[in-house]
TrEMBL record:
Upper lineage: Eukaryota, Metazoa, Ecdysozoa, Arthropoda, Hexapoda
Span of domain PiggyBac transposable element-derived protein: 6-173
Species: Parnassius apollo
PANTHER family in alphabetical order: PIGGYBAC TRANSPOSABLE ELEMENT-DERIVED PROTEIN 4
Domain of life: Eukaryota
Protein name: (apollo) hypothetical protein
InterPro entries linked to this entry: PGBD
Length: 301
């Protein structure tokens, strides 16, 4: 869909255009922008500082516009070097591993800071500035990644929805920790939230929930292939239901997946969301049907 001519940045990488487009209302106002290494580059920092917008953030070592002498420089732990290109500073510092930074607002230099354990440490000023401003964002991304809901097998829009759900859960936990004094970690908070949403007994442990679900799944698998529909109801004509056996939905040729899942037709009619890897072999349209709906579907058809 055409959405108008892009006049902010006619050239440059897609990530740069995203930043420039989102920052359009805030340019030329002296704002400070903090970014991670996915978006940052020397070229983008130069464009933004020309628009009176300063930047600070981490930098990927494979960016084409990086100063080569900094990238190739071999440093020992706690060593710090920097170089200036026009109005942009690029620095390299070794902590547990090399860290590349790009900034237009902080002059690279080593400063003494106090960490959360009340210990005095030497750290570059640009790194300290970035950590102070971005630590909450990085911490949230880190914690969400530990208990991520999306799976590789689901479609992209479902991944987006589940990621937004994970972010909402983390934001809820952040607010909970801010206003409640209860000693509760993120995992325990998620488990309790799930328990409340599902209205589960308070004394039911996570292991018991998993065990109960496992037993339920085993019962379903034991009856995964139901009897042919010709034995379901004597009132249904045998010629009409002959050969209606369930079969596995074939996987597309060349795919590395072992199973293909579609929405169950019967569940969809009931406005219930359930996917299945089975379909009816005898029906002309070969509808996808879960094991629980196979009999009911053919009684209605």
């Amino acid at each position: 869909m055409y959405s108008g001519k892009d006049t902010t940045a006619r050239t440059g990488k897609k990530s740069e255009k995203i930043v420039l487009r989102l920052m359009r209302p805030y340019l030329l106002k002296g704002h400070q922008l903090y970014m991670d290494n996915y978006y940052n580059s020397v070229t983008l920092s130069q464009k933004l500082v020309d628009l009176k917008t300063h930047t600070t953030g981490t930098l990927r070592s494979n960016r084409k516009d990086n100063p080569k002498d900094i990238i190739k420089k071999k440093l020992k732990k706690n060593q710090h070097v920097w170089v200036r290109k026009n109005k942009v500073y690029v620095s390299k510092w070794v902590d547990k591993r090399p860290v590349l930074m790009v900034t237009t607002s902080v002059h690279p230099r080593l400063i003494e800071i106090q960490n959360r354990f009340q210990q005095r440490k030497i750290k570059p000023a640009e790194v300290a500035e970035y950590n102070q401003r971005m630590s909450g964002v990085d911490r949230a991304d880190q914690m969400i990644s530990y208990y991520s809901s999306p799976r590789k097998s689901i479609r992209w829009y479902k991944k987006v929805m589940f990621h937004l759900l994970d972010v909402a859960v983390w934001n809820s936990f952040f607010i909970f920790k801010k206003y409640c004094q209860a000693n509760c970690d993120f995992l325990l908070f998620r488990e309790e939230l799930i328990r409340r949403l599902l209205d589960l007994p308070a004394d039911l442990t996570a292991e018991q929930v998993i065990l109960a679900r496992s037993k339920y799944d085993n019962r379903i698998r034991a009856n995964l292939l139901p009897l042919p529909v010709s034995t379901i109801d004597d009132d249904v004509g045998s010629s009409r239901v002959h050969g209606h056996w369930p079969e596995k939905i074939p996987v597309q040729e060349g795919s590395n997946k072992t199973s293909k899942y579609l929405k169950c037709k019967m569940c969809t009619k009931k406005k219930v969301r359930r996917e299945t890897c089975l379909r009816c072999k005898g029906c002309p349209e070969k509808p996808a049907l879960c094991a629980l709906c196979f009999e009911e579907w053919h009684k209605e058809v």
